């Protein structure tokens, strides 16, 4: 008997991924202890969830980051104004004016980003990347869970249909009569069998023949049911290596003869070719 659906079951994927807070996790664990469906799905998803950490690629530390961070830390550790100041010493040349060439200070090279800022940027990017990866894997996990549930439902339906088919009574099929079809001429080696069967849907004629002459062009074999002087077509067929068959549901009864003719095409409503096989029927 199928258990009624509990909305708490929908929290299974979030529980497996650690997406519930402590109170929600406790409530779900209480539900899990009594829900067989969630217990089965949890076992099915456990292996997939266990692979999630392995799917995140490790992010290498940028080259030189460690040195830059240590250099920045050591620079900040020196207190401001602690540099030793050397008192200016007047040189003999200071007393006399002199013309010196104008020298412009060289421009300072651009200061590279400190190790701390790079570390902060990397730290900010890494959680965002991990969130995207985790969200994608969670979506795939949920899709797999839904697909597995759908497959379980289909398997259950098939089992039910098989059980019903096995318990259903076998359809009764009765053979009314079977007659051997005989060649209509001495030079014909073909043989055949006409069988009339009855089931709950009606009365049916099954005609089988072998060693039939090879067809040429548009030729076809046609089966006829004869009642007195009236001839009724039961259909046409093409032979394959001299073998052919046809199945026809009888609309009326009382036929006295069944025959197979070789026709120039498959579109005649009355016999035009020669009879190949024929047999009398019990009216």
Structural description of this entry:
It is a single chain. With 283 residues, this protein is an alpha+beta fold. The protein folds into two domains: 7-55 and 114-168; 174-280, Immunoglobulin-like. The protein is 36% helix and 23% strand. The protein has an eight-stranded antiparallel sheet with strand order 5-4-7-8-1-2-3-6, with no helix packed on it. Strand 4 (220-227) and strand 5 form a beta hairpin. The chain is elongated and about 115 Å long. The model is unreliable at 80-87, 89-103 and 112-116 (pLDDT under 50).
Search tags:
alpha+beta, elongated, 36% helix, sigma factor antagonist activity, RskA_C, membrane, eight-stranded antiparallel sheet, 283 residues, 2 domains, Immunoglobulin-like, 6 helices, transmembrane helix
What would you say about this model in short?
The chain is of the alpha+beta class and 283 residues long.
Low-confidence stretches at least 5 residues in length (pLDDT < 50)?
80-87, 89-103, 112-116
The CATH topology of the largest domain: Immunoglobulin-like
Mean pLDDT metric: 76
**Name given to the CATH architecture of the largest domain:** Sandwich
Say how many strands there are: 8
What is the CA-atom radius of gyration, in angstroms? 47 Å
3D shape: elongated
Which range does the strand content fall in? 15-25%
Order of helices and strands: HHHHHHEEEEEEEE
CATH class of the largest domain: Mainly Beta
Q: How does the helix and strand content classify structurally?
A: alpha+beta
Helix content: 25-40%
Please count the helical segments: 6
Sketch the major β-sheet.
8 strands, antiparallel
Q: What count of domains describes the coordinates?
A: 2
């Amino acid at each position: 008997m199928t258990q009624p659906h509990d909305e708490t079951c929908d929290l299974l994927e979030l529980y497996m991924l650690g997406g519930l807070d402590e109170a929600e996790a406790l409530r779900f664990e209480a539900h899990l202890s009594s829900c067989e469906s969630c217990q089965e799905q949890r076992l099915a998803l456990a292996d997939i969830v266990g692979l999630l950490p392995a799917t995140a690629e490790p992010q290498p530390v940028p080259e030189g980051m460690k040195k830059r961070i240590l250099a920045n830390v050591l620079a900040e550790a020196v207190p401001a104004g602690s540099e030793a100041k050397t008192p200016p010493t007047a040189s003999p040349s200071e007393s006399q004016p002199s013309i010196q060439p104008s020298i412009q200070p060289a421009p300072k090279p651009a200061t590279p980003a400190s190790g701390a800022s790079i570390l902060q940027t990397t730290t900010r990017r890494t959680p965002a990347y991990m969130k995207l990866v985790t969200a994608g894997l969670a979506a795939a996990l949920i899709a797999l869970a839904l697909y597995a549930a759908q497959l379980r439902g289909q398997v259950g339906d098939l089992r039910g249909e098989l059980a019903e088919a096995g318990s259903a009574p076998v359809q009764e099929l009765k053979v009314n009569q079977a007659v051997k079809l005989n060649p209509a001429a001495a030079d014909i080696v073909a043989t055949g069998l006409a069988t009339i069967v009855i089931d709950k849907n009606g009365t049916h004629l099954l005609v089988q023949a072998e060693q039939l002459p090879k067809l040429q062009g548009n030729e076809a074999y046609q089966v006829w049911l004869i009642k007195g002087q009236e001839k009724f077509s039961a259909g046409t067929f093409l032979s394959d290596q001299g073998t052919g068959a046809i199945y026809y549901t009888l609309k009326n009864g009382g036929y006295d003869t069944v025959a197979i003719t070789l026709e120039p095409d498959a579109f005649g409503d009355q016999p035009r070719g020669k009879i190949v096989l024929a047999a009398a029927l019990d009216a």
